[in-house]
Here is the input.
Amino acid sequence: MNELVFEVTQEADGGFVAESLGEGVITQADTWDELRDNVREAVAAYFFDRPAPARIRLHLVRDEVLA
Here is the structure.
């Protein structure tokens, strides 16, 4: 696997949740920098017994409703 993509959503309280597409990796954090660290840690733990992806992509999803 070359790349693992995470869909990142921002919570109402300002925190972030990241969920990988195609794998069972989910993590959260209060800040973007903390989220990046948590994603790296979660990926390392998930792939502890097999090769980890070469790249990790964080895709921020912004849902905005305009009335």
Q: What stands out?
A: The CA atoms of residues 4 and 56 lie 5 Å apart. The radius of gyration is 13 Å.
